[in-house]
Amino acid sequence: DIVAWIKVPGTKVDYPVLKTEDNNFYLSHDIDKSYSQFGSIFLDQRYYNLDILKADNLIVYGHNMGQWNDTMLGTLMKFKQKDFCEEHNEIYLYKGNEKIIYNVVSVIRTTTADEWYNFISYGKESTFNEKITYVKDKSMYDFTMPEHIRKRFITLSTCDYDGAYKILVIGVKKVTKSNLSNQVLRC
């Protein structure tokens, strides 16, 4: 079920990303499908049969094991500090031989009722701009939008320490030298 690898510099997030047909399964199972209180890092079930590199908003879930343990997505709590965000503003997703870099553009404290969880695809330029406005308005801090981006998001979702709220760390796909030529050709 491993479909990618995720790494967030400055944190201990450095894990395989699994696909699932049931969002509850990997909350309590490891990559070998054995019971684990830590669970795994996994994609929303709606991506199960999709090419994840074409997703407009790739939602990745994982536990925050609490202040007593910094495994899984628990070290994303560091993003609640503006200084940390400014110093560690990238998320890396590895798929096959490709390294995709996302620039963090928002950190949101919210609930599972937030409409952002319903957003997987938009398909229109105007909708992308609306999504950028949405995450900027809800963000705990102001972020500078990177100059060269692709119109794709990644959302890392974990519980806040109190369990009632979620922390979302949201990035936009960065245009790198390796994919800049593709970007120019597509214009």
Tell me what you see in this structure.
The termini are far apart. The protein is 16% helix and 30% strand. Strands 2-1-5-6-8-7-4-3 form an eight-stranded mixed sheet. It has helices spanning 82-87, 125-138, 177-186, and strands spanning 2-7, 14-18, 42-43, 57-61, 90-95, 98-110, 149-159, 166-174. Mean pLDDT is 84; it is low at 179-187. With 187 residues, it is an alpha+beta fold. Strand 1 (2-7) and strand 2 (14-18) form a beta hairpin.
Spell out the key features of this protein.
disordered C terminus, 187 residues, 3 helices
- Main beta-sheet strand count, sense and barrel state: 8 strands, mixed
Backbone structural class: alpha+beta
Query: Helix segment count?
Result: 3
Radius of gyration: 16 Å
- Portion in helices: 10-25%
H/E series, N to C? EEEEHEEHEEH
Query: How far do the termini sit from each other?
Result: 35 Å
Biggest sheet strand order reads: 2-1-5-6-8-7-4-3
Q: What general outline do the C-alpha atoms trace?
A: globular
Quick one: how many beta strands? 8
Average pLDDT over all residues? 84
Unreliable stretches (pLDDT < 50, length at least 5) are 179-187
| Beta-strand residue fraction | 25-35%
Summarize this, please?
β5 and β6 form a beta hairpin.
List the helices and strands and how they pair.
Layout: E1 2-7, E2 14-18, E3 42-43, E4 57-61, H1 82-87, E5 90-95, E6 98-110, H2 125-138, E7 149-159, E8 166-174, H3 177-186
